[in-house]
Amino acid sequence: MTDVPDPATTPDDPYLWLEDVTGGRALDWVRARNDETTAAYTGRARFATLQQELREVLDADDRIPYVVRRGEFLYNFWRDAQHPRGLWRRTTLDEYRTTDPDWDVLIDVDALAEAENENWVWQGATVLRPSLDRCLVELSRGGADAAVVREFDLERREFVTGGFHLPEAKSSVSWIDADTVYVGTDFGEGSLTTSGYPRVVKRWRRGTPLEDAETVFEGKPDDVAVRGFHDPTEGWERDLVRRSIEFYRSELYLRTGDGLVRVDVPDDAVASLHREWLLVRTRSPWGEHPAGALLAARLDDFLAGDTTMTALFTPDAHTSLDYYAWTRSHLVVGTLSDVTTRLRVLTPAEDGWHDEPLAGLPDVGSVDLVDTEPDADDEILLEVTGFTQPSSLLHGVVGGEYETLKQAPARFDATGLTTEQFFATSDDGTRIPYFVVRHEGAEPGPTLLGGYGGFEVSQTPYYSGVVGRGWLARGGTYVLANIRGGGEYGPDWHNQAIKQHRHRVYEDFAAVARDLTERGIATRQRLGIQGGSNGGLLMGVMLTRCPELFGAIVCQVPLLDMRRYHLLLAGASWMAEYGDPDDPEQWDYIGAYSPYQNVRSGQSYPPLLMLTSTRDDRVHPGHARKMVARLLESGYAPENVRYYENIEGGHGGAADNAQLAFKTALAYEFLWERLGG
């Protein structure tokens, strides 16, 4: 084995050519690595069986078709074996209650892709309110974040000839009225931020050239993004602009006849409006209110100078705010108490806000809010789920009773499986919770530990037929870590692990791994880990920093070259999380963990499977490519450094269920073999 020059200290990165996403040399390298990996794993009967079982889960006809309500219709996007690209469809609530609803198909993405000879992947649709007769559909090529926007007539079920249309870009577009939209897109030089998102918002009228649209706001080049939007709530119509300065800092403006009026709250707080109410979610202390609080005031009073805020939620050492959503007249608030979900209802009244638990729900599993329709009524959709509890979808009205609209069947035999919560102790003494799902009384076997640890994203219990059938039903143990960097205990849990404190993410995850072995739940040789995106960075750090703790690693769509991450695709938008590597003082702490710069020859690195996507235009596939090239050049055996790059799929890594089943089966087969399954 030979040492490879550290690209942080040499003039040229020796693998910079692998950042050429579709370059011939780079793709030849990708194909060669793909061929090695598929030859090693996909010819086995066990792989074929697992892939088929996972595909059955993903394509099952008796899955819950999750819906959102828009007026009288419930909308759903559905993929199955016959429609791998998917159907966008709708039905009524009465039909949805039946065993076999009559779905009205609006867009068949497979048929559209074939007719237009395009590799369309569904990205969503925004329906015009209050008429609900038009929508703006987003379609991407191969699953990238960049999308084409096209206007669709919901009554005629066809795209509008001469309607609103935007070419492929990372656009933001929202309705003002039937003939006007706010649009941010690639208007040409200077119109995008350094993160690749819109810097300019324009007001675009139907039938006029896009280049003639009226500019209403311009952000700064180093902002993350700006966007304009219209609130169509009857009696409360208004226009707003949100400027995202950094990932966690933004400004909200009202567009008035006198110009822009800023809603003057701290720029690291999140402000939102509903009818007469202003809500503010704090991320740092504001006056008497701590970080992680939810505050309310009447908007008109606040703009007039009365900044008195009513605390609707105040966190404590065990409980944090997870999310909130309005119905017409209530605010539904989800909290986490040691990573267990609790729902409350807050109702504004003349004598103040009334606060009470959301009553009428089963006292089992984890309950999460799926959808509300604040323009219409107090209807809510809820999901009840758990690691071993198949999901059920409940429907009701706040204050009333709830009916079970849909119940998913079990996808794997959970007999004998237990779910437990434990706490590990990190290097600085902080208690780190984690969940363990395993067969009661079983000896330590193949164990899969997952984690994320970033961007204030919480990891909560959920039912996964894929994890269940592909891992638990085979006798494996599944572990989910709630490390810092996430939001399980509010913004402070996240803030403790950003920038110069990033090392705590990795110390927390390593502490969970050690705790698993100390408790006899796992052994080092049979403990595997898996993570993607920011979780992929976590996997890379574990490989280079704590290789002695793990038996195998699956690293997906990762950040790994933290010296250049801010120069690649959307990377500049994440500097509030990781720091600026061009600042020597900040590079000191970033470089200490950056996986690509910390590869060394002669180390006992555990076997690695790297998974990424050519069409990922959020996290550059060059991260994964270069890391594997560097490991191979450092002398690590190809059979211990596997690589697979899906051509499609965007940041999710798969454009349809077939690709997702293949990719997941590859990961599980790799782990099962390496962990002695």
Word description of this protein:
With 677 residues, the protein is α+β, with helices and mostly antiparallel strands. The model is unreliable at 1-11 (pLDDT under 50). Helix content is 19%, strand content 34%.
Mean pLDDT: 95
Kindly state the number of beta strands. Answer: 37
Q: Specify the CATH homologous superfamily of the domain at 16-55 and 411-674.
A: Alpha/Beta hydrolase fold, catalytic domain
Q: How much helical structure, as a percent, in the residues?
A: 10-25%
CATH topology of the domain at 16-55 and 411-674: Rossmann fold
Determine the N-to-C terminus distance.
30 Å
Largest sheet: 8 strands, mixed
* Main structural class: alpha+beta
Radius of gyration: 25 Å
Instruction: Give me the CATH architecture of the domain at 16-55 and 411-674, please.
Output: 3-Layer(aba) Sandwich
CATH class of the domain at 16-55 and 411-674: Alpha Beta
Summarize the structure.
This protein is 19% helix and 34% strand.
Distinctive features:
single chain; 677 residues; alpha+beta; Rossmann fold; 13 helices; 37 strands; globular; disordered N terminus
List the topology elements:
Blueprint: H1 24-41, H2 45-59, E1 68-70, E2 73-78, E3 87-92, H3 93-96, E4 104-108, H4 109-116, E5 120-127, E6 134-141, E7 147-153, E8 158-159, E9 165-169, E10 172-177, E11 180-184, E12 200-205, E13 214-218, E14 225-231, E15 238-246, E16 249-256, E17 259-262, E18 270-274, E19 277-281, E20 294-298, H5 299-303, E21 310-313, E22 319-326, E23 331-337, E24 340-349, E25 352-357, E26 366-372, E27 379-386, E28 389-397, E29 402-407, E30 417-425, E31 431-439, E32 447-450, H6 465-470, E33 477-481, H7 491-495, H8 503-518, E34 527-532, H9 534-545, E35 552-556, H10 575-578, H11 584-591, E36 608-613, H12 622-633, E37 641-646, H13 657-674
Parallel strand pairs: 32-33, 32-34, 34-35, 35-36, 36-37
Antiparallel strand pairs: 1-2, 2-3, 3-4, 5-6, 6-7, 7-8, 7-9, 10-11, 11-12, 12-13, 14-15, 15-16, 16-17, 18-19, 19-20, 20-21, 22-23, 23-24, 24-25, 26-27, 27-28, 28-29, 30-31, 31-33
